[in-house]
Amino acid sequence: MPSELEKAMESLIMVFHNYASREGKTGTLNRRELKELMENELSSFLMSQKDPAAVDKIMKDLDTNGDGQVTFEEFVSLVVGLSVACEQCYKMHLSKGCVKKK
Predict the structure, then answer these.
(1) In angstroms, rounded to a whole number, what is the distance separating the alpha carbons of residues 71 and 16?
(2) Where are the domains of the chain?
(3) Which of 77, 82, 94, 95 has the fewest CB atoms within 10 Å, i.e. the most exposed one?
(4) pLDDT at 70 over 90
């Protein structure tokens, strides 16, 4: 039986490839695919961004080789960055007693 971490990794891979296989180059996200992924899978984060060009800026930051495509490796950097920010919020709430450890 897979562990919680293994399930999370599998989910991350499956979500990426679900959007990456919709159009264009298989195995990468173009701007439209990235936007759709973020609108559906990271909607709270995207709505918290006040900048209407947020997806374009994120695409530019993620596309480290400048080919107009986001690979899984490039995409993971977004997930890691958001996870680090969320973990910092979690620790803050934990220290205030708002969240209980499992």
Answers:
(1) 9
(2) 4-95
(3) 95
(4) yes
